[in-house]
Amino acid sequence: MDAHNSSSFKKFNATVANDIWPEVLFFSAIATMVYLVSTMTSTDLSIDSSLLTVLGVVLGVVVSFRTSTAYERYQGGREMWTNINIASRNLAQFIWIYVPTEGRQRNELKAIIEKKTMVNLVQAFSVAVKHLLRGESGIYYEDLYPLICHLPRYADTKAPRQVENDILPLFRRGREPQHTTSLPEPKDDHDIMDDDKSTNASWYQTLSRRSPRKQGLDTFDPEKVLPTVKSEQPLKPGRNPPETSIYDYIPLFRFLKWLALIIFRRTASLTRMTDERQKMGRDALGRKRKMGSMESNVPMEICLYLSSYFAYLMRQNLIKPPVDSALTNNLSSLQEAMSNLDRIRNTPLPFAYQVHLRMSLWLYLFFLPFQILPKFGNLVIPATAFSSFLLLGFLEIGQEIEDPFGYDANDLDLDGFCLRIQREIHEITAHHCPTPDIFVFSAWNKPFAPTDERTAETLRGILPHEYMVPGRDVYVQPGSASIRRTLLNSWRTVDRVTRHS
Q1: CA 425, CA 122: separation in Å to the nearest integer?
Q2: What gap in Å lies between CA 236 and CA 133, rounded to an integer?
Q3: What is d(CA 70, CA 398) in angstroms, rounded to the nearest whole number?
Q4: Mean pLDDT calculated for residue range 432-441
Q5: Are 131 and 144 in contact (CB under 8 A)?
Q6: How many angstroms separate the most distant Cα atoms in the chain?
Q7: What distance in Å separates the CA atoms of residue 241 and residue 243, rounded to the nearest whole number?
Q8: Other beta carbons less than 10 A from residue 222's beta carbon
Q9: Which terminus of the chain has fewer CB atoms gathered within 10 Å of its CB, N or C?
Q10: What gap in Å lies between CA 419 and CA 22, rounded to an integer?
Q11: Are 60 and 364 in contact (CB under 8 A)?
């Protein structure tokens, strides 16, 4: 299958056809029955169309409200991720730039390691929120565990023997029952290379399994740049979308398979198929299943460690109160965004409203062929099918996007958001925070251009009272007046060229 056809199939799978086809077939069958009975027998099933006009207007308004409400939730989720992106970038900048690496008997290397570790925790926050919204509990994921595995694991870290009851909540959630042995002490890189990897298979995680990547991530593998760490249990892929098959592209095949399993009473196979569909996020008829609610403390605990780090900086007088306020405000923005995302995910529309709306729409579509039969004749079947597809489609679109945090094509690209944060944070920490003298007074810098093309390195050798633009400031004495004239001439030149070029 070539790339173009594959893309076409993905686009088709992103529609709501997989969700509404059973209902469209049902109402089309009703229309067929009405037409055949009315034309092949003496019974006339047509009824007056007055009810169609009244209910049509009401249902149109209600369905429109349902769709717009769902889109507001979708847009709200995107806005919250924008807030996480901004707050993460701000936190990384403040930590990397404003926290000093020298003075007060601070070891420079130790301070840089400390700051980079905290910046990594900022990156881990967005990844933890992503897994939280997708209903994936715990920290044992390829894109999350390497960033936070160094955090305290036990309540009593100095106990001679670590026991299961001492495991902190961060590491307890998501653990497999069979993996209860404590993690061995980390070794040096030299020792790790000399160890027999086959004997340490249960402890050594190479992160060789790469999770499937969503469109847009094909040029970069986020997990590939994370450190290789030990884990007491295998790490799950950072992204585990449901597998697709021909049944997802041709919904009728899925229905026929499900019907055949029922007819032949293959209970075991039916159960297995149902389990597979549940794992893939859809039921036996292919309808999207809602992810169950999940309590997770991973993002909150990451915020606790960041908050404790800020408090440590204040106690040591390493940062000023305005910087501490900025750090605290951005951390609060992260927590607020996480709470709003959790609210969007766990607050669906009331069940009574959804049921009443769907039942009203079903009744409307059920009586539709009875009312349009006199005017449409043999076109009543395609007209009913089209109306069912149109109205049910809008209803399903609202249900599809009201929880936009999964793996569907219509969901938000959470992996792309986390990737963007990862890239920006690493770009911030790539700079070593030089003093202005290093880059300002350079042979490449021409600060007074276009009026004065001399470099900052050349201008640095001129005394302030001797400065003068060559060949221009004939009426101005050298010094500050000449500098002001230079800046004014630069503005006049730029204004003239950009307006009349």
Answers
A1: 9
A2: 16
A3: 5
A4: 81
A5: yes
A6: 110
A7: 6
A8: 22
A9: C
A10: 38
A11: no
DSSP one-letter code for 358: H
For the chain, what are the domain ranges? 46-242+290-348+402-429, 246-279, 436-500
3-state class (DSSP) for residue 281: coil
In angstroms, rounded to a whole number, what is the distance separating the alpha carbons of residues 414 and 420? Answer: 10
Distances (CA, A) of 187 to 90, 130, 139, 347, 356: 34, 31, 22, 46, 62
**Tokens (6 digits) for 364:** 């409307």
**Helices 414-429 and 50-98, packing angle to 10 deg:** 20
What SS3 state is found at 230? strand
**Nearest 5°: phi and psi at 196?**
-80, 110
Q: In angstroms, how far is CA 313 from the centroid of its own chain?
A: 31
Per residue in 156-201, pLDDT (tens digit) is 666 667 777 777 777 776 666 544 444 444 444 444 334 433 333 3
| 38 contacts: CB under 8 Å, gap ≥ 6 | 44, 45, 46, 373
**E-strand stretches of 163-257:** none
The upper half-sphere exposure of residue 78, i.e. CA atoms within 13 Å in the direction of its Cβ, equals 11
If you search the block for the tokens 């590491």, which residue do you land on? 171
Q: pLDDT tens for residues 398-409?
A: 888 888 888 877
Tokens of 331: 């951390």
Question: Could you give phi then psi for residue 216, rounded to 5 degrees?
Answer: 110, -20
135, two tokens: 């209903």
Angle of helix 351-376 relative to helix 17-40, nearest 10 degrees, comes to 40
Rounded Cα gap, residues 453 and 446, in angstroms: 6
Q: What is the phi/psi pair of residue 433, to 5°?
A: 55, 60
126: helix, coil or strand? Answer: helix
At 79 the pLDDT is: 94
Pairwise CA distance, residues 194 & 180, whole Å: 26
| CA 310 – CA 94 distance, rounded (Å) | 11
C-beta separation of 399 from 74 below 8 A: no
Write the single-letter amino acid at 238. G
Residue 262 phi/psi, 5-degree rounding, is -70, -40
∠ CA 364-370-371, nearest 5°, is 75
Least Cα distance to 412 among 132, 12, 78 occurs for 78
